[in-house]
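Section 5.1 Outputs to date
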Amino acid sequence: MRTMKACFIAIFILVVAVSVSTAGSFSDSATSFKPGDKYYNASYLDNCVLYARWLQKTKLPSGLCTLADKKAIIKTSSNPKKGYVAVLDIFTQPADGYCNGKLVKKGTPVGHVAYVADTDNSGKEKSITLYEANNPGHNERKHVLKGKDKSMKDIEKHFNIIGYWKP
């Protein structure tokens, strides 16, 4: 009887721990920009760095070909603000290619950057709004990342944001 009670208590604790760790939810939505939209620029459809630099109107460093290059410019790992550039640990080079005269081999982690257009760190649902280009399968778009009953850190981790470059 004592062993059965101990098993029941252990199972109850496990269920509570799992439900607490999975509380809340994540969601994202994306809207493509079209010709004529304020944030559309056909010149940068295939380059996330040039698009972020164009939106930011400041000097995002050049030579951001690989994830290692992008990690090197991170100035803060949290608390994004409008005008920052998010660095995401997503994407690998699909084929050998050149970036700024440098060979980037197939399979090299290249990462991604996106302009932080807005953040909302209040209330139960927090969000980070990114404007981005050259996210495979998409051209330029508004991408809203949300976490209900989640912290900004949780959202960043879930969507592979590893830090921010701030002007």
